[in-house]
Amino acid sequence: MDPLSRRNLLAAAAAGTVMTAASAAQAASFGNPDRPPQGVTNTLSNPSSATDPGPQNPALASQFPGAFSPPATDVGDMPMFWASFNNAPRRVQNGGWARQVTQADFAISEQISGVNMRLTRGGIREMHWHQQAEWAYVTKGACRITTIDAAGRANVEDVGEGGLWYFPAGLPHSLQGIGPDGTEFILCFDDGKASEYSTLMLTEWMAHTPPEVLALNFGLPAETFARIPLDDLYIFQGAMPGPLAAEQAEAAGSVGRMPRASTFDLAGMAPSRSTKGGEARIVDSRNFPASTTIAAALVTVHPGGLREMHWHPNADEWQYYIAGEAEMTIFATGPKAVTQNFKPGDIGYVKKSLGHYVRNTGTTDLVFLEVFRAPEFQDVSLSDWLAHTPRAMVSQHLNVDAATIARFPATKPVVMPQ
User: Between 301 and which of 29, 270, 360, 382 could a Cys-Cys bridge form, CB atoms 3.0 to 4.6 Å apart?
Assistant: First the structure.
């Protein structure tokens, strides 16, 4: 057989075309580093490859462009790190409501569980305590909190919008809405499995204690307690409390107040970091001494700005999105890089030491909380690390000249402008 026959030449040419196409498909480039390339770049000659004929929920799908059409730099997968209070069932009662997202609903969230609660004006979350510490951020209105410590010293305090409270594990407390339209807030427990619906409540213990024991405990006739509710109150409509000073004096009695405040004005503090891109207010046991197991940052990112590339070496990060729109990409070993989108009421979660950034994708300020089960806030900035490493070392890694590396941000900006 003639090796140079027309048939063989055509076959060789066809094979060469396939090899060339295969080589192109395997090409990698800056901004699209994987072999084969990731994303819609693969569909330029066949656009239908990226379409979704359905079935689908367009209202839901449109909220997650980062999932539907990931950046070409995304690779691999990782456990879902998005959840939301927006689709969490509400427990509604006369006086307010509550909804929660625990590890049972959000598997990745091992260190923090979250609750969203509203109390009407006068609405009361009944007196109770937890086996976990409770940290809270007030998103609307104002709340009166009461608590005592193991020595019987009392705190009665009012917390306004942007304020915090913290109750150590095991210390009893109550909450009451006192704003013109009551209050709404976010609670975080320092255990991902903790449930708002499994708390130790005053009415339940009293109802499940024999009358003669109640009589002995309080030194009063058993009939004193004959009208105790047989079902827990949980959230109920109550009367407005008296003046703060009078209630503080009454609660303190002869024992006095707790040595540390149970509340902190996070929104009222000066920014811990501020740039043209936004600002961050950091609160932990160093400036809010009562909060020994929870640290947090309230971050504002202006349109087009970026919560810089960073990671947290001491704890997982639980996020709550308050305003604006965001895109977060998390980087893990593998390599893995996955992007998700967030809107108000959504929750994000980043495991300890995984690299990530949060970008403002909207037209208004992005505002969100970063919450950690740790006594102190800690983060490592990528640009800070590179700026404080000998430039020759960095240059050999990135193929970027030393003069350019000298221009990297070296002061841990936290938020970068557009």
Answer: 360
Residues with Cβ within 8 Å of residue 5, at least 6 apart in sequence = none
Is residue 370 part of the annotated active site? The answer reads yes
CB 275 within 8 A of CB 312: no
Beta strands at 306-311 and 415-416: parallel, antiparallel or unpaired: antiparallel
List % helix, strand, coil for the chain (3-state, nearest 5).
20, 35, 45
Whether the per-residue pLDDT at 14 is higher than 70: the answer is no
DSSP string, 45-65: T-GGGG---SS--HHHHTT-H
The letter for the amino acid at 216 is: L
- Give the Cα separation of 333 and 339 in Å (integer): 15
Tens of pLDDT, residues 295-308: 999 999 999 999 99
Domains located in the chain, CATH noted? 88-264 (2.60.120.10), 269-416 (2.60.120.10)
Element (H, E) at 337: strand 336-342
Q: Which amino acid is at 38?
A: Q
- What is the DSSP secondary structure assignment for residue 297, as one 8-state letter? E
What is d(CA 228, CA 208) in angstroms, rounded to the nearest whole number? 10
**Residue 248 dihedral angles phi and psi, to the nearest 5°:** -65, -45
CA distance 102 to 148: 27
Among the listed residues 126, 157, 196, 370, the single catalytic one is 370
Residue of 233, 213, 234, 235 whose CA lies nearest to 222 = 213
Backbone angle region of 256, left / alpha / beta, with phi > 0 → left and psi within -120 to 50 → alpha: left
DSSP 202-269: HHHHHHTS-HHHHHHHHTS-GGGGTT--SS--SEEE-PPP--HHHHHHHHHTTT-B-SS-SEEETTTS
**Which comes out higher in pLDDT, residue 27 or 173?**
173
Tens of pLDDT, residue by residue over 230-282, are 999 999 999 999 999 999 999 999 999 999 999 999 999 999 999 999 999 99
Residue 26's pLDDT is 57
